[in-house]
Design brief:
9 helices; Arc Repressor Mutant, subunit A; 2 domains; Tetracycline Repressor, domain 2; about 210 residues; mainly alpha
Amino acid sequence: MRNREKDAREMALKRDTILENAFHMFTSNGIESVSYLDIAKTCGYGTTTLHRYFSTKSKLVVAVAAWKWEQVWEEKDQLLSGRESAERTAAGIFEFYLDSFIELYRNHKDILRFNQFFNVYVQSERIDTGTLQPYQDFLESIRKHFHEMYILAEKDGTLRTDVPEEELFSTTLHLMLAAVTRYAVGLVYIPEKSFDPEKELRYLKELLLRDNRL
């Protein structure tokens, strides 16, 4: 009789192995240039095993994106949850999330490089909304935190609430993520002297804070 718990652990381990190897290969070589066969060989599995977990390359790419981003943001959620509730303000939470993007640039340039490849791949392959759902679910979890912050702002008055919630979420996410991604992959003007990427990113953060704080 098969041990179901053991089988489940082995399946989860294989899935994580596929995701981890695919992430590193996509980040190093670009998504479009990496084939199913390349990933299978690196993992030590056959392509049949890959198809058992991810029926198409697009589903694998989206799964990698959702899996890796969830790992990174789980760390940040734990840090925020560790703060004393009495010390939280909407403005403080907003600043925490802005700082989180800068921390991504400082310590997670690999996922930002992947993010650049991912955006191009999604557009070029015209990935449908059904396939993108796991990634959209991750974005929804961030949106939930922004909603909680916005509700708190209505109570404590430390952030503007005349700006629609969806506009605040979209503007913050797109501006900060686009900025740290471009810096991570080198798609910025680099002067000969006095170039400090983090200083420039902190300047963007302060602009967003100043524009939205009361």
